[in-house]
Amino acid sequence: MLIFSAPSGSGKSTIVNWLMGEHPELNLYFSVSCTSRAPRGTEQNGVEYFFLSPEEFRQRIENDEFLEYEEVYADRFYGTLKQQVENQLEQGQNVVFDVDVKGGLNIKKYYGERAMSLFIQPPSVEELRRRLEGRGTDTPEAIENRLAKAEYELTFAPQFDHIVVNDDLAVAEAETLSLVEAFLHE
Q1: Sign of CA dihedral 60, 64, 69, 72
Q2: What is the pTM of this model?
């Protein structure tokens, strides 16, 4: 299992998508998470997410069925079911988690040496600001909130197995590939 966490704008999704798209030999598959939000656009239950009602989500929390979960807003939950991960492992998949830092650390704690955790780090908070502003998708207030959250998330980086600094995308991709190949071939 491979756990990827990073502050918003670090390039984590770009690196993970490159790894999965360019290296099919690694047999990487995203874990399918649960959410209590409604499907968007063409999203299908069991493909992008498992869509649960807030009540179903709470019941599964009570039953200790999640590896990790978070209530992002009132009644808006996201989480990873233990059984779903086990099903994917039984099918021979190498499961990829793209999760926040706390979720990543919880998954690593649960699976221990069966999982490798990677923290994708921006070269600096200033560079992160430049990237977020360059996206043009957030208000100045939203960018400030993301940067404050990023500074907090950066404090967790030392708890991950590896830190990959994404200063140069090609170098970060190559470093990530090398770490993943070494872990999967142990």
Answers
A1: positive
A2: 0.89
Q: Is 78 strand, coil or helix?
A: strand
**DSSP secondary structure string for all residues of 112-159:** GGG-EEEEEE-S-HHHHHHHHHHHT-S-HHHHHHHHHHHHHHHTTGGG
User: What is the token pair recorded at 42?
Assistant: 């063409």
- Provide the 8-state DSSP code for 38: P
Q: Would you say 132 and 146 are in contact if contact means Cβ atoms under 8 Å apart?
A: yes
How far apart, in whole angstroms, are the C-alpha atoms of residue 28 and residue 20? 6
CB 1 within 8 A of CB 107: yes
4: left (phi over 0), alpha (psi -120 to 50) or beta: beta
In angstroms and rounded to an integer, the radius of gyration of the C-alpha atoms of the chain is 17
Task: Report in angstroms the alpha-carbon separations of 53 from 57, 85, 151, 168.
Answer: 6, 21, 33, 41
Residue range 17-28, pLDDT digits in tens? 999 999 999 999
